[in-house]
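Try it yourself: sequence plus beta-D-galactopyranose, in.
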Amino acid sequence: MVLSRRTFSAIVGTAALGLSLGGSAEMCAASTVPTGPAPGPPRADGRRHTVDFDRYSMIVDGGRIVLWSGEVHPFRLPSPSLWRDVLQKLRAHGYNTVSAYVSWNYHSPAPGAYDFTGVRDLGLFLRTAAEVGLYVILRPGPYINAEVDAGGFPGWLTATQGTARTSDPTYLKYVDEWLTAVNRIAVRHLYTAGTGTIVLYQLENEYADHATEAAGRDYMAHLYRKVRADGVDVPLFHNDKGRNGHWAPSTFDTGGEHGRWLYGFDGYPSPFRTPPDWGYFGPGGTKGGSTASPGTPGFLAEFGGGWFDPWGGAEFDGKGYAESRRTRDAAYERRFYLTNLANGIRIHNVYMTFGGTSWGWLPAPVVYTSYDYGAALDEARQPTAKLVPMHQLGHLLHSVPELAELDRAEGLDVGGGPGLRAYHLVNPTSQAHVHVLRNDTAEERVAAVPLAGTTLRVPVPGLDARLLATGISLGQRTLRHSTAQPMLRLAAGRQDVAAFTGRTGETTETALECPGKPAVTVLEGQAECEYRGGALHVHARLGGLIRVLVDGGGVQRPLLLLLADDETSVRLWRHDAPSGTVLVYGPALLRTAVLRDTAAHLSGDTVEEADLEAWVPRGVTEVVWNGQRVPTHVTRSGSLRAAHRLSGAGPVRLPALTGWRRSAENPESAPDFDDSAWRTADRAASSSTTPVPAGGPVLFADDYGFHYGDVWYRGRFEGAADAETVSFSYVTGTQGLLMAWLDGRPLGTHRMPVPDKKSVRQGTWSATAAFPVAPGKGSHVLSVLVRRMQHDQDGRAEDAHKAGRGLASVTFKGASPRVSWRIQGEGAPDPVRGPLNNGGLYGERNGWHLPGFADGGWEPVALPRDERGQGVVWYRTAFRLAVDPGTDASIGLTLTDDPARAYRAQIFLNGWNMGQYINDVGPQHTFVLPNGVLDTHGENTLALAVLSDGSTPSGPGKVRLTLLGKAAGGVPVTLVDSPRAAT
Ligand code: GAL
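Structure, out:
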């Protein structure tokens, strides 16, 4: 049955009423949406679709669906071709949805200017998601947080009047401009219209602090009206900062559209505590979610799949993101995500699934360049062991639609001692039961699960969890029970196929309902099979792929039972192609499957040599792999198996980086430098929230239109012969610094203190740097370089992004000369690389970072370097790559040196600012160079802008290319436009 929007809203209304009357039979009855196959992967197919929901789940075209989503930020991967790679990896590993923030600052270099081209081509990202077959949850803010500069607000917004994140009209005027621009693209990609796959759209982000105030509600109502007026007709939602019930339906004015607003919330629980029960989201729930929003499905808009790491690496004791991945490992995912599913969460978005890179000046002060996040897919696009549970659960949710509609069932005593927790759920229509068993202790526990006529003894490893199911359909047969976790099922040719999974070495029992005794053949591996009590019992120890063919016994279609351990399970790829479902076994990745005539055209990756086997619909007799026909034979498993193994990835040779040339810069420090074109810093009032010191002038860089990276000041004064010290008060984000010169002579460098573990997430730092001076008589020039790092995020909606950045004031001891200041920051934004690519270093203003810059006159040098001096020195080289065209090589740049050396480097690849290396802070040493920005079949230009304190010898030390992963396959990569220096 396809519900029209009108009928659907009526259902929600009744359900909500039922609960407010204290619960009713209506609430406990099965829903009116029949359990059928989950809707297939979405496409932009030109047809209209319905996107609705009820208290259980989303309902797309009348079918229930669990949205199993991963967060990916296109702005953290500045190579549009690679979006396809990441999205295909998500889909292959069982995700059906991608959730994406859109970062306002990334698209807007100036008020009224919006750029959605090149690496900013949001339309291309959305089109790619649709082509790959993923639903999209779009989250364009206007505020996003996300550990990006100013939480996504453009730099120029910091210098405007109007309180952000409120209904202040000045702010709303800019917001509306942004939403108009982004929604113009969004509405071209809505699933409802069949022109894209957007099914949900988020307003604002964790807007908690004004949630109960009228101004906050007006603001949200404004956003709601605006987004609807722009034509976004899919359900909207907000991500409550915790399960607080903020922004549940009817808590603000949505113009009476109750049925089209969802309640969602975020959760980032500690991996070291017991997974939280936020209340059951669905019928039978007694607290929390179900009372906050009884008519909408459980919706985790963000659930921590990793965590971010601040400068210095304090979060993970300097061990970096590998440690984030270790503390939130595969077992964490099973424990926490299965708990979420057991709590009725049916829209589940893992933040992050691919973290990527906060390149250029994108990172908020709280993070360094890498935003790897310890995510399931690492920053170098390599699958990690964390994809295993996602793969197993994702494929399960797509193949077993009963899981989209579960009620809490009577609690069961499973014994096993304290720390073993059991959740029991039942599908009201099919009566399939689901048990989630979770072990919160470090030692293995054995659950005794009472089932009809038997007790199943199920071991649960320490700090782990598993899902059991009974009564689910495996095609023509039904599962009685299994101690292994069901993973997928499909009808392939004349048979059904069902796969179960678990940890290697586990002993499992799987019982299939069989009215009569079937013929059983163990085709691969070892299994003991016994027919008793109307069921076939298969006992097997997991390892590799165990295949058991079950035929007859009163059932027409044979069933191929597959038992796969973890490692094997991620070589099993179920793929729904428009004209049928295939199951592929063997390669490291299956990207696409198209059934055309008698052939299955498959594309994917291998790393090592791999077998290739495919279960295909009837009539398909041939297999094509990455464009090459593969000879196959039909196996006893009913599959087509390649006669030869697929080859793995060939060698990738990376050149040593040699041929460096060096040039010092900072001519701004010289007394006679011509700064006449610089802006005069003479303003009396600032838009900043940081008070301007009495007497002024305003020196904050944002007030003069400089928003990113380094900023220079030059101050002229006369006399002051008695001055003893000069003091610079300045404000930066974490890890900011200030270098000063008087009349061309270095005064010294001051760095913001390296934060301790407690204050590490504090964004704004202010300090006063005092240097002894003896200016003597006459005219003098102070030259000051401030690396101000970035703007704070505004998580608490208090205009924190408007905290000043740059110099605040300058005073002298022993004299009080009048100083006239000029200021210079970044030049005009790079029209291709965008506003966040450059700061205001001399080299950046003059194209030293760009390919084609004439560095022939620079001094040839070899690395490592050992020089001492305060200031900025550039190093450039070129290197050529010739990676085999069929190989996807992921390459990084690694810098290492004596950690006592006080210097930092901004890394430019072909003019793109790939991040900041701080040698004595870390923890990041390897910077991912995304293919597309990196030419893997040609010449590349590398430039390092090195800022040295002068307090220690400085590098660069060793600088080399590193191979972060390789595969035969990959996606075609189009080079991003990398404009060269003007000649
Ligand atoms: C959430 C926020 C995200 C991100 C995350 C931490 O609270 O909504 O934008 O900042 O925390 O990575």
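One thing you can check immediately is this: The two ends are 66 Å apart (CA to CA).
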